[in-house]
Specification:
The complex is a heterodimer of chains A (997) and B (98).
Chain A: E1 13-22, E2 25-31, H1 35-41, E3 48-49, E4 56-57, E5 70-75, E6 78-84, E7 94-97, H2 124-128, H3 140-153, E8 168-180, H4 184-195, E9 200-203, E10 219-220, E11 223-224, H5 225-237, E12 242-245, E13 248-254, E14 258-264, E15 279-291, E16 295-297, E17 310-312, H6 313-323, E18 330-335, H7 339-350, E19 353-359, H8 366-374, E20 378-381, E21 383-390, E22 394-403, E23 408-417, E24 420-424, E25 427-429, H9 432-436, E26 442-444, E27 449-451, E28 459-461, H10 471-485, E29 498-499, E30 520-522, E31 527-528, H11 529-537, H12 543-550, H13 563-574, H14 578-581, H15 595-599, E32 610-611, H16 615-620, E33 623-628, E34 631-637, H17 644-657, E35 659-663, E36 668-673, H18 677-684, E37 697-703, E38 709-719, E39 722-727, H19 732-746, E40 753-756, E41 761-767, H20 771-778, E42 779-780, E43 794-799, E44 802-807, E45 816-822, H21 826-837, E46 842-844, H22 847-857, E47 903-910, E48 921-923, E49 934-944, E50 949-957, E51 966-971, E52 976-983, H23 993-996
Parallel strand pairs in A: 1-7, 8-9, 8-15, 9-12, 15-28, 17-24, 18-19, 18-24, 19-20, 32-34, 35-46
Antiparallel strand pairs in A: 1-2, 3-4, 5-6, 5-7, 10-11, 10-29, 13-14, 14-15, 16-25, 21-22, 22-23, 26-27, 30-31, 33-34, 35-41, 36-39, 36-40, 37-38, 38-39, 41-45, 42-43, 43-44, 44-45, 47-50, 47-52, 48-49, 48-51, 49-50, 51-52
Helix pairs in contact in A: 4-5, 4-10, 6-7, 7-8, 11-13, 17-22, 20-21
Chain B: E1 2-5, E2 9-12, E3 17-21, H1 34-42, E4 50-56, E5 64-70, E6 76-81, H2 85-90
Classes of the chains: A alpha+beta (997), B alpha+beta (98).
Protein name (chain B): Sarcosine oxidase subunit delta
Organism (chain B): Mesorhizobium salmacidum
Chain lengths: 997, 98
């Protein structure tokens, strides 16, 4: 048995030995241990180094509020930093390391910061690194220079760069009653609500339900509280209207009683079950909520209160009673209230010697004196701890007489030898969720705490959360809350009886013992009482400003242990009562939340994906797929040994020389139908569609209401009242929504129906000098000659027995056709086209070749229709009808949108024959040392096989006026500078003779 | 936040798309009154209290709804089809589901 483990007691499984490592050292623990309890049992006292001063730190608490013992858990290549050791359940193979130390935890080079403590006070960095007002490192630049070194010295754990392979998922839950917290109050509430037949969810952030019942040592219904907890939980488990969520932190309280929770599903397992997520994000919609979240014990602020071995009193009681671990053998208790006497007695019963109980109050009650006697402890009333001693573990402390009314110390300091100091500064209800729900906390002078106010949403509080710190009250309030939440009425059944040690719930209003040496308020951010007073002296009077200046309560623990002491010290400095200083409002999350859980199925193997009907064919024929939004599209069909560039150059070249085919099924397709369909399209598009003949297609451009370009595509008139609109792949959803909005909200009188038919049609675009011959070889039921199928004409026919619709239109600039068939026949038609194309040298091509040919033609896509460009910027003003108003027509002529200095679409040719990069800036004169003077940027680029040059499309100030002039690319990020010629965006076949044939 | 769609019933806000201030008046399409167009495109009421908004049930029936929502409390006091009653009567109601 390890040195500090008790022989019996606790809720751990001594028969089960678990092996784990901390900082590379192998340790063992037992089933039910946390990393904190297991290390404590192994005699480890030093858990980490503090944020700023690198002071040695041990465990302060046993729960989620832990500010000191933060560790990084390693799983393979993945590091998860800043996890409280108190919240890590050990499992075989667990590997954790300490943080913020170099080169090791016991010998840390930055511990020298402790000597500079006087100058490293609040705002030190801001004041010191403001920088000179002149010179190369003036102002902010100087701070940026210094920041690199400061960040290395001050901080928490470092995040890894490996991809997290874990799965995360999101669940929705609906219940009548959500109970948050499973202490005696929460258990009673869940049981009472369940008994009424309500659907209940009970969530607790700990792995074990029961809260204080697991360690209070009280007797409930004649049995040890832990036994009562076990029985009650078993009753709840047996009911099918109760869902129990252990390891689940309810972290956010939103409108309409929607709560967010994080369940740590498999962090505690050496090997998660197949398919089991690491974390599960719960969105819980509750009819009503019972908040039974308990209270946090507060530390006292006194010199040396951060030394390893100084711990919250209840935490030590918890380690002894729940984990069978003694935090020390010679224990001193320092308190301003009665609850710590119970902790002292618990440690005594577990086998520790209680050397002394130091109480700031001059006259503890007779009951407490009796408890001190029972613990065989010397009772030093009207005393206070003024110093602690020891390095990486506590060795002793100094005590002086203390007058709590005057806050004054007197007499000689007396040394007490101890290896553990328990402190208790009273209790603060965990009101975070209520505060998030909009409730403003109310100061209660007797409890010296902020208590939850009247509910603003449908929640009910119970137990310590409401400031009722006794188990008797918790049980009564819990049942009442559960009943009320379930809409039930009281049952006459008797409440469980509680035998508890007595005690007054009100602490003395003492938060700080002023002495020499650092007294910590916020342990995690190294904020001392003196820092708070310094902030006050420097003029920070608002609690919000105090918080930001000192960073009090802004660490990962969000000040769970430091808020109230910090506020009390601020109030004293201001000479105001605490409620007038006010408290800050709590915001979600209550505790850190993994980002993976928020993303959940939107990433990883459960992410939805859209596949075209020909997807499998592409894969089977060597396509490298490219994800475009949710769609997957072929990027290239590479031959073995080919680079991406070689592949797309080959594909584009073959298309222009013979024929090529590309899958265009992803284009958005909307059926626009009804008597007013043509009139509607006239309003939606900048050009006319009512004049379009049946059996013809037209290229259309849409603007937004504000006059900027929105989307483009072709629309086919299939019948008098029947149009098939195509949109860009990326904007399909947005265009649909745009049309629906105008039909529903603006022009409800129009008789038009719009239906998304994107997934109903498979599309293949086949283009090139031989494209018509290929069609002629496989299409039946219609001719495809120039007379039957002119440019922008539509015919219906069959390919290999399947009905198809063919429109002659071109994106590649070649003689080209789009062949549409029912989605289910997509692959069949595609394969028939491939077969028919074989004698003609048909290739299939991907997005790269598609992009290359469209750049050569100077066509625009989303890269140019980027929400900031107008039709004129893109030289599409010929499409702006003057005969009719359309969406955006009134706003497109605004001063700013017709200015001459706007960015306009141009073409670029690299004069140094090197590749260009998308996003690179265009400048008139290159200045590599100090890049400036952008006149525009590149939107798309490629190597053009048709021109044999590296070309690009760009948006450049002045546009057409610069045709034929020189400029330069300036791309400092990729170190690419060089001359370019600005030309027309129509690089290739500007007259369109190839596509008109 | 829950919005009670007159057709689909109470649904989470995640199913809806906010489509803007419902107080905007679109000028006559042929109007060249630039001030009016500017107001329509850019000016928004930003009341602290009840606000008339348009939401689309984009993850449901796709109808546009006129929602009166309190911007301070997120309390929703009324929801109706933007197209008006003649159209909402024509639609099947949630409780009419087969």
């Amino acid at each position: 048995m390890s040195p500090r483990r008790t022989d019996t007691g606790g809720r751990i499984d001594r028969l089960k030995t678990i092996r784990f490592t901390f900082d590379g050292v192998a340790y063992t623990g037992h089933g039910g241990d946390t990393l904190a309890s297991a290390l404590l049992a192994n005699g480890v006292t030093l858990f980490g180094r503090s944020f700023k001063y690198h002071r040695p730190r041990g465990l302060l608490s046993a729960g989620v509020e832990e500010p000191n013992a933060l560790v990084t858990v390693l799983k393979g290549e993945v590091r998860e930093p800043n996890i409280p050791a108190t919240m890590v359940e050990i499992h075989d193979g667990l590997s954790a390391v300490s943080q913020n130390r170099f080169p090791s935890l016991t010998w840390d080079i930055h511990a020298v910061n402790q000597l500079g403590g006087k100058i490293l006070s609040a705002g030190f960095y801001y004041k010191t690194f403001m920088g000179p007002v002149i010179g190369p490192l003036k102002g902010t630049r100087f701070w940026m220079f210094c920041e690199h070194f400061i960040r290395r010295a001050a901080g928490l754990g470092s995040a890894g760069s490996a991809k997290d392979p874990a799965r995360y998922e999101r669940m929705n839950a609906f219940c009548d009653v959500l109970v948050v917290g499973s202490g005696p109050a929460g258990l009673m509430a869940a049981k009472a609500a369940a008994d009424q037949g309500a659907r209940v969810v009970l969530a607790d952030l700990e792995p074990r339900f029961g809260g204080s019942g697991n360690w209070s040592g009280e007797t409930i219904d004649g049995a040890p509280a832990a036994e009562w907890v076990r029985r009650t939980v078993a009753q709840l488990e047996a009911r099918d209207n109760v869902r129990l969520l252990p390891r689940t932190t309810v972290w956010g309280y939103y409108d309409n009683n929607t709560l967010a929770a994080l369940e740590r599903v498999s962090d505690h397992k050496a090997q998660p079950a197949k398919g089991e997520p690491r974390h599960r994000y719960w969105a819980i919609r509750a009819g009503s909520v019972v908040l039974a979240t308990g209270a946090f014990e507060r530390p006292l602020v006194f010199p040396g209160n951060d030394r390893p071995g100084v711990m919250l009193a209840h935490a030590a009681q918890r380690y002894a009673n729940e984990f069978g671990v003694l935090p020390g053998q010679r224990v001193v208790v320092f308190t301003n209230n009665d609850s710590a006497y119970r902790s002292a007695l618990a440690l005594k019963q577990a086998g520790a010697a209680i050397v002394a109980i130091i109480d700031v109050r001059p006259q503890p009650s007779a009951e407490m004196s009796a408890l001190a006697g029972e613990a065989e402890a010397e009772l030093l009333s009207g005393h206070a701890v003024v110093a602690t001693e020891g390095g990486k573990a506590l060795s002793g402390l100094k005590v002086q007489r203390f007058d709590m009314v005057a806050g004054a110390l007197s007499g000689d300091a007396r040394s007490v030898h101890a290896d553990c100091l328990l402190m208790s500064g009273g209790w603060s209800p965990t009101i975070h969720l209520a505060s998030q729900a909009g409730a403003k906390a109310e100061w209660n002078a007797a409890r010296q705490a902020f208590l939850p106010p009247k509910p603003t949403q449908n929640w009910i509080g119970a137990g310590a959360f409401t400031g009722s710190f006794s188990t008797v009250e918790a049980i009564a309030e819990g049942r009442a809350a559960g009943l009320a939440a379930a809409g039930g009425t009281g049952t006459p059944a008797a409440l469980p009886t509680v035998e508890a040690t007595p005690g007054d719930q009100d602490p003395a209003p003492v938060f700080e013992i002023k002495g020499s040496g650092k007294s910590f308020v916020d342990f995690q951010h190294d904020v001392t009482a003196e820092d708070v007073r310094l902030a006050h002296r420097e003029g920070f009077v608002s609690v919000e400003h105090l918080k930001r200046y000192t960073t009090l309560g802004m660490a990962t623990d969000q000040g769970k242990s430091s808020n109230i002491p910090g506020l009390a010290i601020m109030a004293e400095a201001l000479g105001k009562p605490i409620p007038e200083v006010g408290t800050t409002r709590f915001r979600p999350p209550f505790a850190p939340v993994s980002i993976g859980s928020l993303a959940a199925e939107r990433f990883g193997d459960l992410k939805p994906e859209r596949l075209t009907p020909m997807h499998d064919w592409h894969l089977a024929n060597g396509a490298t797929m490219y994800s475009a939004g949710l769609w997957y599209r072929p990027m290239i069909y590479g031959l073995s040994g080919e680079t991406v560039e070689q592949a797309y150059v080959r594909e584009a070249k073959a298309t222009r020389e013979s024929a090529g085919m590309v899958d265009v099924s992803t284009l958005g397709k909307i059926a626009v139908q009804g008597p007013d369909a043509a009139a509607f399209l006239d309003r939606v598009y900048t050009n006319m569609f009512s004049t379009l003949a049946v059996g013809k297609a037209r290229y259309g451009l849409m603007l937004r209401e504000d006059g900027f370009a929105f989307d483009d595509g072709t629309t086919w008139r299939l019948g008098e009242q029947d149009f098939l609109m195509t949109t860009t792949t990326a904007n399909a959803g947005k265009v649909m929504q745009h049309l629906e909005y105008f039909l529903d909200v603006i022009w409800p009188e129009l008789k038009v129906h719009v239906t998304s038919v994107t997934d109903e049609w498979a599309g293949a675009a086949i283009g090139g000098p031989k494209a018509r011959q290929i069609l002629a070889a496989c299409v039946t039921g219609t001719a495809v000659d120039n007379a039957t199928l002119p440019f922008m004409g539509i015919v219906h026919g069959e390919i290999s027995g399947v009905p198809v619709m063919i429109c002659r239109l071109s994106f590649s600039g070649e003689m080209a056709f789009e062949v549409y068939s029912g989605a289910g026949h997509g692959t069949h038609v595609w394969e028939a086209l491939v077969e028919a194309g074989k004698p003609f040298g048909l290739v299939t091509y991907g997005l790269e070749a598609l992009g290359t040919m469209r750049i050569e033609k100077g066509h625009v896509t989303g890269a140019e229709i980027d929400g900031r460009t107008t039709a004129r910027d893109l030289h599409l003003d010929w499409m702006l009808s003057k005969k009719k108003p359309f969406i955006g027509s009134a706003m497109m002529d605004r001063e700013g949108l017709v200015a001459s200095e706007r960015l306009e679409l141009v073409g670029l040719i690299a004069l140094d024959n090197r590749p260009l990069n998308g996003g690179a800036h265009i400048v008139e004169e290159v200045d590599e040392a100090n890049p400036h003077g952008s006149i525009g940027h590149i939107t798309a680029c490629c190597y053009s096989p048709a021109l044999g040059k590296h070309i690009a499309l760009a948006l450049v100030k002045g546009g057409k006026a610069r045709h034929g002039t020189r400029a330069h690319v300036s791309d400092p990020l990729r170190n690419r500078f060089g001359p370019v010629e600005i030309v027309s965006n129509h690089f290739y076949d500007p007259e369109g003779t190839r596509m008109h044939g | 936040m829950l919005i009670t769609c007159p057709y689909c019933g109470p649904r989470d806000v995640i199913e809806f798309t906010y489509q803007g201030d419902g107080n905007r008046e679109r000028p006559d399409p042929a109007s060249q009154n630039f001030e009016a167009w500017n107001a329509y495109v850019y000016d928004r009421l930003n009341p602290a209290g009840d606000h008339n908004e348009i939401w689309q049930h984009s993850g449901g029936c796709r109808a546009h709804l006129r929602v009166v929502r309190n911007t301070l409390t997120h309390e929703i006091s009324s929801v109706a089809f933007v197209r008006g009653d003649h159209s909402s009567a024509a639609r099947r109601k949630a409780e009419d589901k087969p």
